[in-house]
Amino acid sequence: MKELFKLQQLLVPDLLNVMERRYFVLRSIRLTEPVGRRPLAQMLEMTERVLRGEVEFLKGQHLIDFQPAGMSLTPEGREHLTKLDVLMREIIGIHKVEQQLSECLGIAETIIVPGDSDKMPLIKDEIGKACARRLEALLVEKNTITVTGGTTMGSVANALMEINVEGKEMIFVPARGGVGGKVSDQANSICAVMADNTGGTHRVMYVPDEVSDELRTILLKEPSINNTLTLIRSADIVLHGIGEAMKMAERRNTDEESMNKIIKRHAVGEAFGYYFDSDGNIVHKVSTIGLQLEDLPHFKYIIAAAGGKSKATAIKSYMKNAPRSTVLVTDEGAAKEILKGE
C-alpha cells in the first residue's frame, strides 16, 4: 500500500490532493450536518466556487444529500468515510507524526486526530471519541477511573456512550474539586455523565479546587473526603486535560498576588493546579485537595487530552513533567505546532 501511495504521488500527484480534499469535505459535513455551503466553505478555508464543485461530485456519487436544512452524509457516505478515516491517516502520514511527537515529548504514545479544534470546535468531539476508544482498550473487569474537569473531558464523557463496556465494572471519581466556570465542565458533573453513559457509578467531591492551607487541613479530617482521596489514589486510570495558564487562572478567580506571579514568571500551561513555564518549570502551585503531580508516577495508565494550535505551548510545558507512561490524545493543529520548533 505504501508503495502504491509513493507511485501515485510520483505519477499523479494531484490525485492524492483531490482525495484528501474530498475526505475533509466529507468529514466536515459529518461533524456539522446538516450544514450549508457557505459555513462549510468558511470552515474549510475554501472558496464557495471550489466547494460547490466538490459537493456536486460527492452528491453524484451518492455520498451526500442536499436538504433545505443543509448537506448531510448518506448511509453510503458514512460507510465509505469510516474506511477513508483509516486510509487517510496513512496518506496524510499521521502515524509517523504520532511517533515523532511521542519521541519529542518523551511519552509512551500519541494519538492524533485530523484537523485543528481552534478552527473547527467540533474536532474536540473527535478528540473525545479517540480518547474514549483508547480508554476502552485499557478496561478490565473492574475499573476505577479518576477524571479532571474541562471541556475536553466533557467531550470524552459524551463519547463514552459509543464504547463497549459489557461485563466491565466502572467507578468514576473526580480528581479535583470545583474550579469555577460552567457546572457541566466540573469534574463532579463529568464523572456523573461518564457513569450514566457507561452504566457505571461515580463519587463526588464537593470541595473547591483551591483552598487555604488552614481549610485544607480541616477538610482532610472529614471521613467522606478522605475516602474519596483514597479512591482517587487507588485508581487504575487517570483521564485529564491540559489548560492554558492564563485561562485557568481566570477560571479560578485567582487573587491579584498569585496572578502577578503567574504573569511575571511566564506561565504557559496548567494541570492539576500546577502552572508551568515554557521550560516545564513549576512557577506556581495552587493549594488543592485532590490528585497531585507527584501522585502520577504511581498510576498504571494516564491519558491526557488537549487540542488546538493555541494549546501547543501548554501541552509541551506540561509534558516535561508528565510520567513517561502518558498517552496524549490531541489534534493536528497542536501536533504540528509542537513539532515546528523541533
From TrEMBL:
Residues 18-88 form the CggR N-terminal DNA binding domain. The keyword DNA-binding applies. It comes from the Bacteria. Keywords: DNA-binding, Transcription, Transcription regulation. Transmembrane segments: none annotated. Signal peptide: none annotated. Residues 91-340 form the Sugar-binding domain. The keyword Transmembrane helix does not apply. It holds the Pfam family CggR_N. Belongs to the SorC transcriptional regulatory family. This is Transcriptional regulator.
